[in-house]
Design brief:
Elements lengths: L5 E7 L2 E9 L11 E2 L4 E2 L20 E6 L2 E5 L1 H6 L2 H5 E9 L8 E9 L4 H14 L1 E9 L2 E10 L2 E7 L25 H14 L11 H15 L24 H8 L25 H9 L13 H8 L6 H19 L1
Parallel strand pairs: 1-7
Antiparallel strand pairs: 1-2, 2-8, 3-4, 5-6, 7-9, 8-11, 9-10, 10-11
Helix pairs in contact: 4-6, 7-8
């Protein structure tokens, strides 16, 4: 376990619980070193005096507050402690609230609280009180030089202090284009909601945090190992052309996407959804079928069925029979009769 970063006491009414604070999380970020691309030498940073450009060691650095332009009030660590000794050494519980009443947006950083010397019994008392009441304690605490709002939460047998953001640190959403519940552009049908719920239920499982890990970091480290094996330890990979992304349409068929997501083929609804489906559109008629209908007499206005398109097209072709020439010769006699009449 790392060293405690804070020691003090929880103020619980008239009860003081000595505790020590430990970090509850550890970062696994990629530790990348900045290099000079000309010779791949590491790039360093220096703390320097801005007046004479000379380097300044840590022993010569003090903290100051600039109250006017160029004028500073020097504040030592003792000054910061003496300003409010109680605030800097006490986790002062202000109220107890339901955990559900505090939105996740307010949670910031977790810390473990362990009992200090002689504080086991009062620590256990607060822990069991939080557990039995189903509440969390809202408190204030000063860590380093910043006061935090905090929530004391019972997690198993440990009291966890989660620093919270103050209300004025949360940005308003007024400038964001959030669709309203009654907006026509974001209207959600009962069918879409039903299928989305089915997708959520199909993907629901017990919370197992150990099965999630940083796959991107693992891929980067695998790439580093691959470059080491290929002896590419000082080669810069230049950016290449990205593959063109398919053009997206503003019209999204949510039902089709949800059906694909839950393993159903689009166009094949479930049995209980068939009544909600509109009738399928009629197939377009072939040009031959359309011509045949125009040539048919008015007394027979029947349309060709969608399934008989091929038969209609076949009947439009001239048949190779003996009757065909006779029918073809009939139009030739009509002009002769018109001439005699003239």
């Amino acid at each position: 376990m790392a060293r405690s970063l804070w020691k003090g006491a929880i103020s619980f009414g008239l009860v003081h619980i000595p505790v020590e604070m430990y970090p509850a999380v550890r970062e696994h970020s990629l530790d990348l070193t900045m290099l000079d691309r000309r010779d791949f030498s590491p790039v360093g940073f220096k703390r320097y005096n801005k007046n004479n450009d000379k380097e300044v060691t840590w022993d010569d650095i003090v903290k100051g507050y600039e109250h006017t332009d160029g004028e500073y009030v020097v504040l030592s660590e003792e000054d910061l402690r003496r300003a409010n000794p109680e605030a800097t050494g006490t986790i002062d519980i202000l109220a107890f609230v339901d955990a559900a009443d505090v939105p996740l947006l307010y949670y910031e950083q977790p810390y473990y609280l362990a009992p200090g010397k002689g504080g086991d019994k009062v620590y256990a008392l607060l822990r069991e009180t939080l557990r039995s009441a189903g509440k969390i304690g809202i408190a204030t605490v000063v860590i380093r030089v910043k006061q935090h709002l905090a929530a004391l939460v019972c997690v198993g047998d440990t009291i966890v202090l989660n620093t919270l953001r103050f209300a004025d640190e949360i940005r308003a959403t007024d400038e964001l284009k959030i669709p309203a519940n009654d907006a026509k552009s974001a209207a959600v049908s009962d069918k879409e909601l039903k299928m989305a719920m089915a997708l959520v239920e199909g993907m629901s499982e017990p919370w197992k945090p150990e099965q999630y890990h940083d796959t991107y970091r693992e891929d980067i480290l695998a790439l580093v190992e691959k470059k080491v094996q290929a002896k590419e330890t000082k080669v810069i990979t230049m950016p290449g052309k990205e593959a063109a992304r398919p053009a997206s349409s503003n019209v999204v068929d949510l039902v089709a996407l949800l059906q694909q997501s839950i393993g159903k083929k689009p166009g094949k609804p479930a049995a209980d959804e068939e009544d909600d489906e509109p009738p399928p559109p009629r197939k377009a008629r072939t040009p031959a079928a359309a011509n045949d209908e125009q040539a048919a007499p008015a007394a027979r206005p029947k349309k060709a069925a969608a399934g008989s398109t091929e038969r209609v097209a076949a009947s439009a072709r001239p048949k190779k029979t003996a009757a065909a020439p006779a029918k073809a010769a009939a139009p030739a006699k009509a002009p002769a009769r018109r001439k005699s009449a003239a």
